[in-house]
């Protein structure tokens, strides 16, 4: 096993749950929340799925099924940490992650640095190896109507030496 691999992750949730809204381990809203089995952190979920994909270890639902009582209210950044350990056990470490949050009504910019630091800590990366961006759908679809949000992540792993 030599070289590098890339993984891609995606997650989406409905914005109709109890606050707070947590993204990348950071509370970004005290007034809205998501409906989810875990804490509904779409950023953590997308990054976790990207890491699982890069290491060919399945997907989030395979390792943390929504019908498992242990998944109820689970800390998504904690789940990401467990997958970081799994990746290491199979000979991989993350070298870079790029995340885009797609949301209409929540401002990501004021929380970007905190989200980067939170992700960098769990992934054992320097802050400059983590990118967090945001975009809207310009009023289109369920995200544009303020009914939900999504996150997309690209992640690179390199073989441990």
The total of beta strands comes to: 7
Question: What is the CATH superfamily classification?
Answer: 2-C-methyl-D-erythritol 2,4-cyclodiphosphate synthase
Radius of gyration: 15 Å
CATH topology: 60s Ribosomal Protein L30, Chain: A
Q: Report the CATH C-level class.
A: Alpha Beta
Number of DSSP helical runs: 5
Low-confidence runs: none
Strand content: 25-35%
The sequence of SSEs as H and E is EEEEHHHEHEHE
Total of domains? 1
Distance between the termini: 10 Å
Which CATH architecture is right?
Answer: 2-Layer Sandwich
Give the helix proportion (percent range): 25-40%
Strand count, sense and closure of the main sheet?
5 strands, mixed
What gross morphology would you assign? Answer: globular
Class per helix and strand makeup: alpha+beta
Strand order of the largest sheet: 4-1-7-5-6
Mean pLDDT over the full residue set? 96
Topology readout:
Blueprint: E1 4-17, E2 21-23, E3 26-29, E4 33-35, H1 42-54, H2 60-63, H3 76-89, E5 92-102, H4 112-123, E6 130-135, H5 141-144, E7 148-159
Parallel strand pairs: 5-6
Antiparallel strand pairs: 1-4, 1-7, 2-3, 5-7
Helix pairs in contact: 1-3
Q: What does this protein look like?
A:
By secondary structure, this protein is α+β, with helices and mostly antiparallel strands. It has a single domain (4-159), classed as 60s Ribosomal Protein L30, Chain: A (2-Layer Sandwich). Helix content is 29%, strand content 33%. The protein contains five helices and seven strands; from the N terminus they run E-E-E-E-H-H-H-E-H-E-H-E. It has helices at 42-54, 60-63, 76-89, 112-123, 141-144; strands at residues 4-17, 21-23, 26-29, 33-35, 92-102, 130-135, 148-159. The strands form two sheets. A five-stranded mixed beta sheet has the order 4-1-7-5-6. A two-stranded antiparallel sheet has the order 2-3. Helix 1 (42-54) runs parallel beside helix 3. It is globular, with a radius of gyration of 15 Å. The termini are close together.
């Amino acid at each position: 096993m030599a070289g590098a691999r890339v993984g891609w992750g995606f997650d989406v949730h409905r914005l109709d749950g109890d606050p707070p809204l947590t993204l990348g381990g950071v509370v970004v809203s005290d007034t809205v929340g998501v409906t989810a089995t875990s804490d509904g952190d779409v950023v953590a979920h997308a990054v976790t799925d990207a890491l699982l994909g890069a290491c060919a270890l399945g997907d989030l639902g395979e390792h943390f099924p929504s019908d498992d009582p242990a998944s109820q209210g689970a800390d998504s950044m904690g789940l990401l940490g467990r997958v970081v350990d799994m990746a290491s056990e199979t000979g991989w470490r993350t070298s870079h992650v790029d995340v885009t949050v797609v949301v209409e009504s929540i401002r990501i910019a004021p929380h970007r640095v905190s989200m980067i630091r939170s992700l960098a800590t769990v992934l054992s990366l320097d802050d400059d190896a983590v990118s967090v961006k945001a975009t809207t759908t310009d009023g289109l679809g369920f995200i544009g109507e303020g009914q939900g949000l999504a996150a997309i992540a690209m992640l690179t792993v390199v073989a441990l030496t």
